[in-house]
Design a protein that fits this description.
376 residues; alpha/beta; Dihydrodipicolinate Reductase, domain 2; nine-stranded mixed β-sheet; six-stranded parallel β-sheet; 12 helices; 30% helix; globular; binds nicotinamide-adenine-dinucleotide
Length: 376
């Protein structure tokens, strides 16, 4: 039973519906309003979770003095404008990925967040999966040693998803692959060279002028001597869904390549002059991290909110994004309650998103290097 003081609204109830019961059960949340311009979606979620208050337009949420924080789960082209409107209305803002699709909009959101003094958090699922949390612990305990290289890939086919996906440049939606790498390396991307690959059918080239179903990039990181490689597919590629990441350390390498299978962890004995190194391989079971959450929302690391009758496409992949949803809600809520920056604050979100935007710029310029701007 919620008994906190924070009054939250969730806007966009396709994927967004997944978060509604988590807010309802979070101990710091007093009330939840749901909002969607689609009356059927609105009615379904309102009934399903017995939500007390519902509305059809974001403007109603923005104008309401009884809402403190807004979680946006609208379509990609709406994220930037809606996030700025929410922040300028003096409300805290969580937004699904990507933060925006232009560098100018990233600057505008960071500025709106600073001027408002409110919280902005990008709700990047890939840095709260149990596989990522396990890798992060290994790295923080020093078991991987000095990082030498990182690699990420996000394969997904977006045929017949909502119209704004048609022909989207793959690297505009790269944060699931970029985020884990930059989070582990604790830095940002400084420079990128990216190539487009494959052949996109004509009709998919119209909306964004993007000819590439696949983009693959090399990022120079802002840490001397470290780089990362990222590949994204969005169309015309038979590889099933996967948000894969690999981190190569001097003492240990962690590879997560296949959905539904445990990662690989390789370890090597210390470098000793004149001796070959011994290697060992294991497949660690990545534990559920409900222990990091308040008890009332711990079960959402495993539980699907939807039944089979009304399943959102994204839940068919990643088993609800590998337990990440309640962690995201908890971090957003607690950062507000504790008056601190969230883990993926506006600057971090802009740095992660800019990496992909600049990668697509490079792919459109035949692989010429593009400097990735810094936001903080
Ligand atoms: N792993 C992840 O982080 C992940 C997974 C899936 C989707 N997403 C992101 O979530 C977003 C939503 O995905 P989806 O598949 O549910 O999209 P969708 O287009 O099906 O749903 C968006 C909903 O937002 C509503 N909406 C938009 N503007 C509104 C407004 N002004 N007022 C009221 N309602 C409004 C629409 O009516 C629609 O129902 C996408 O942008 C995608 O980038 C992220």
């Amino acid at each position: 039973m919620a008994h906190g003081t924070l009054r939250v609204a969730v806007v966009g109830l396709g994927f967004g519906a997944e978060f509604v019961p988590i807010y309802l059960d979070h101990p710091d949340v007093a009330s939840v309003v749901v909002c969607d311009a689609n009356p059927q979606r609105l009615a379904r979620v309102t009934e399903r979770f017995r939500v007390q208050e519902a509305c059809l337009q974001l403007d109603e949420v923005i104008g309401s003095p009884r809402i403190d924080a807004v979680h946006l789960v609208s379509g990609i082209p709406d994220h930037a404008g809606q996030a700025i409107a929410v922040l300028r209305a003096g409300k805290h803002c969580a937004c699904t990925v990507p933060m925006a699709t232009t560098i100018d909009d990233l600057h505008r959101i960071v500025a709106a967040q600073r001027e408002s003094g409110r919280t902005y958090m990008m709700m990047e699922t890939a840095v709260y999966t149990r596989q990522f949390l396990f890798a992060q612990d290994l790295h923080q305990r020093g078991e991987l040693g000095r990082l030498q290289f990182l690699r990420g890939a996000h394969y997904q086919d977006m045929e017949c998803w909502p119209p704004y996906w048609a022909g989207l440049p793959p690297m505009w939606y790269a944060t699931h692959a970029v985020g884990p790498l930059l989070a582990l390396a604790g830095t940002r991307a400084k420079r990128v060279q990216c190539l487009g690959s494959g052949e996109m059918r004509q009709e998919l080239r119209q909306q964004y002028g993007n000819p590439w179903p696949v983009e693959t990039a090399l990022f120079q990181l802002a840490v001397p001597g470290l780089c990362a490689e990222v590949t994204r597919t969005l169309f015309h590629c038979a590889r099933p869904y996967m948000e894969s990441f690999t981190v190569y350390g001097e003492d240990g390498c962690y590879e997560w390549q296949l959905e539904g299978e445990p990662p690989m962890l390789f370890r090597a004995s210390p470098v000793t002059p004149g001796q070959t190194r011994r290697h060992a391989a294991e497949r660690p079971q990545t534990p559920d991290r409900a222990d990091l959450l308040p008890a009332p929302i711990g079960r959402y690391t495993r539980r699907f909110v939807y039944g089979n009758d009304a399943q959102h496409l994204s839940f068919e992949q990643g088993g609800g994004h590998h337990g990440s949803h309640p962690h995201l809600v908890h971090e957003f809520v607690r950062s507000i309650v504790e008056a601190r920056a969230p883990r993926i604050d506006s600057v971090t979100a802009a740095n992660w998103t800019a990496a992909g935007i600049c990668a697509h710029q490079s792919a459109m310029a035949d692989g010429h290097a593009v400097e990735v701007p810094a936001f903080g």
